[in-house]
Amino acid sequence: MPDVRFHSVFDIIGPVMVGPSSSHTAGAARIGKVVHDIFGDTPEKITVYLYESFAKTYRGHGTDVAIIGGLLGMAPDDPRLPDSLKIAYDRGITVGFVPKSDKVDHPNTARIVLKKGDRKLEVTGVSIGGGNIQITEINGFKITLSMGTPTYITIHEDVPGMVARVTHIFSENNINIGTMTVTRSAKGEKAIMVLEVDDYQPGILDQLKQLPHMINATYFE
Amino acid sequence: MFYTIKELVEQSADYPSVAAMMVHMEVENTTRSADQIRHLMGKNLDVMARSVKEGIAGVKSVTGLTGMEAKKMDHYLAEGDFMSGRPILEAVRNAIAVNEVNAKMGLICATPTAGSAGVLAGVLLAVRDRLHMTRDQQIDFLFTAGAFGLVIANNAGIAGAEGGCQEEVGSASAMAAAALVCAKGGTVVQAANAVAMTLQNMLGLICDPVAGLVEVPCVKRNALGASQAMISADMALAGLKSVIPVDETIEAMRRVGMQMPSAFKETAEGGLATTPTALKLKQKIFGDQ
Q: In chain B, whose CA is at the least distance from the CA of A52?
């Protein structure tokens, strides 16, 4: 069996998107959108580090515009996408792009750093083709988050008992957890949990969000 | 699930068609019903048809580097005096149309990528009336293409930055060829042969976008992909067979992609992208930076 990176027929036929590049525009927007959902807030400052092909061709492909559009919550087929830089400027968000010459594991890699007050989130995403993406790092911790597997991500205060409270909710709903990553990182940022589960059940997200000390919870498929 | 074309061919014997098998697997892997999945694919079909129409009417890209050539092909076709056949030229015109829309940041459906989005839509829209395809049959065409595309994607790749244009326009062309064989009433084995012959003709194709834009040579590479798909389908339907098996061909494409220097993988550092004219255009579009 090969390394299965593409699971759905819609990974191949789709997405419907604003051009010109599925990896450099749609994939970039999706990486931005995932980071937006994890952060759960509008940042004050965005810094995007671009590597290899992303670094060399980002302007021609609209990668910069797409990542910022995603970070503002836009999907790859959002007609406002081409105007995202202006929209960010109007909202008073500071945006910076830094093309890097370092070698990385995948040619289409972006590292996104968001800041708001004392909160900081740093996420690395790769665009693997056809608009499909993977998240490989959150706040310095290696993870493998492939879109296509039901996944919950929580950001919460770093207090005792959070892991127990979160897993209790899944246990009560009879949902099996496949993999689980708990990270606590850099100063100022909170703890993060990434849970890949076997089934999606509506309602769990609300239960997670209502837990004390929970800052944000998101669900991806 | 199928992970090789061999498995795809074997497992499809248990279903009425490759498309039916693909829908069934999609139901098994998601929380969606078959009706919802077909409906979603229908929406993709609608976007494809709209982008063909929009491009033929005439569009110009954001940079002005490409555009208005699908319209030119349409006029040429209307005059009726051409060298190759009408179906193939309509596929070519449609493919150019979609990628011109893509280059102006218009709405398209990536198949498998945006840079290669013209191929599948171009071929389908060129044959659907000739083959009297119903809407359901057109949707099946896309599921068939997607099934073959999944195997190519998982065993090689579909990103120019990973493996060059062979993995984008090459994959798109192979998918279209296979779907066309099935739509014309050929066997799944013939479809597999069409995939093999297509990829063998695409092997080594580099990704060298001028100024890093998905315009030159991408728009006309889609014309290549669409015409090759028609030719491969006809060769397979005529009974021609690939000497090298299709799964070994896909593996060869993966290896070629890995061995390809990064200058030819969507970095705009080689090939057409570093010709004097390309460098001048880059300067004109982006300035000195």
A: B267
Q: Is the CB of B251 inside 8 Å of chain A's CB atoms? A: no
**Domains along chain A with CATH numbers:** 9-146 (3.30.1330.90), 151-220 (3.30.70.260)
Of B102, B142, B154, the CB nearest to A13: B142
More confident residue, A159 or B20: B20
- Kindly compute the dihedral angle of the four CA atoms of residues B7, B9, B12, B16, in this order, to the nearest 10 degrees: 180
CB contact under 8 A, A60 and B212: yes
Torsion over CA: A202, A206, A208, A209 (sign): positive
Residue numbers of the domain that contains B135 = 5-286
CB pairs under 8 A between A and B: 181
What confidence tens digit (pLDDT) does each residue in B49-76 have?
999 999 999 999 988 999 999 999 999 9
Q: The CATH number of the domain where B189 resides is what? A: 1.10.4100
Q: Tell which residue, B190, B139, B17, has the closest CA to residue A10.
A: B139
Give me the number of domains chain B comprises: 1
Q: Do A53 and B214 touch (CB under 8 A)?
A: no
This prediction has a pTM of 0.87
User: Is this prediction's ipTM beyond 0.90?
Assistant: yes
Say yes or no to pLDDT of A70 above 80.
yes
